[in-house]
């Protein structure tokens, strides 16, 4: 497996020329980097006008590995070839390195670049990427991979510290400004053609023992340091200097992350955690048309899967499809809790804890869970809990700005006084378990701490029922106090300022959270009302349909076109597996064959329209090239019809079905397994037919506002690619 690393953009608040002077001080040896034992110049080439300087070095590195492994490998040191291309005209430095030692067994590639900050020419940006591919290493492949990644990540941030150290050293020497490169004076012969370009050739100064630095000796302290730019035309107006009063850097590129931004808004991350965030973010930009969640939302899913990139990607893709299908992005705008919830749901927001996290108080022991379920049903309670989680994310963003530090989770204080066996009513527990399942899958790492106070004797029974549905990371955030233990040392005062401890827990702060109480039976709905699709349901207004695709049983839908040049549009997500998407024109009217569920299995949506006796090219024809779609991708597109008649859209299973996903089994999956065969793929889709003159700007065009990409996106871009008469975008 190839290990990859991608750094965020690191910004030096110094001009490019100053950073280059500091960088050159690292050679030929650098005591500040113990693993770097020295370097030897292999070639040194400079263009005639001095604008480009290419130098190649052999670098000697020590290896911090077990002695037995060194003995087996037969080496004490490793050698890398490093090629630096310095362009003074463009003010860029490109560094390319690869290993020379064990090159037939291990491939290490690294690319670094220094460039001018696009918004401030007196600042310098640094980016770094690397890959490690261990093909074979005497049976110690995993060990070598761990050692290599550990050493590499340990020296990543060290590199920035070294540059800053030498920059400070230059400043202490009185070197505060370095002239920029300017082209040399025109040395054309008097009778030459003035329109002819000046030839640019390279001169080689290759010498195995020559110094790797392109700098002249520094002048005495107090005078500026000059670079050997081979240019006599430098003047004071071309000099750049460091300004201590500069403002904060902005992100150099909208598609890239700035290291200072990560530290300010996302918190302290290790180099590999930063790399995982950047790689997942880049993958989402590629597969979701640039419409991606906010960085703190992506980071929550990475943390939930311990920064395992593939697992976090699968979890996030399922969540984004869930948000899109059920329009969760709009829940704060569309959801108005019924009067029964407002009066009898004993929960609400209450200031913040000592760390600045929003504080939510839930008086579960005072709630009539049975009455709420009978009055509102499971769906309404779930919708209300989702609105609380959406509000919590919003409050985290606000507190991040207020307190000036990253806040990505909230604290929940649960008061269990009054909890008894009536809270263990089976339908109520079922509703609670479903809510936990949905929240765990779609709002990971949003709970910073759960404080449970006044836990009664019945609490262990409830905990036994609930704990299997809560993952280990979340369980570690639980603190349980029985009786009045929360008032002593190690109690609430350690986590919440005493002045905001609620009055019902002995504090002085008036808490406006409803007190709950028994729900009057006049609010109760009949069982027919609760099962009625017209009753308030979380998913009632979705415009998307879901379908299952089985091996040998594609899902197909029929679209009848009355007028030629109509436009068939589609928007679908691959929830599970890989599929091939096809569009056919049929000369015959198909008879739908629907796959029936059996036994206890849930109802499935799987329809076949193309009869097995039909012949491709005779009874029906393909009007678009097949499109292979992978799990997690969002596909939007359109097809301009040439003829009226029947068109068939088909999703057909192909390839293997990924098995990674949440570790907790779901009831739906267990029931589905009772069928003769389980779905190989799952698709969520929406289609519409438009007249050609209505297509542009319609709800399902490529710029559609109904594409339902998550509103967690901070900024979006649009892209598409054309295939014949069809527009298909990922």
Overview of the molecule:
The structure is a single chain. This protein is α+β, with helices and mostly antiparallel strands. The chain is 25% helix and 26% strand. The protein contains 16 helices and 29 strands. The strands form six sheets. Strands 1, 2, 3, 4, 5, 6, 7, 8 and 10 form a nine-stranded antiparallel beta sheet that branches. A six-stranded antiparallel beta sheet has the order 17-27-19-25-29-28, with helices on one face. A five-stranded mixed beta sheet has the order 12-13-14-15-16, with helices on one face. Helix 1 packs across helix 3 and helix 11 (378-403) packs parallel to helix 12 (426-442). Mean pLDDT is 79; it is low at 187-192, 194-201, 206-252, 533-541, 657-676 and 696-730.
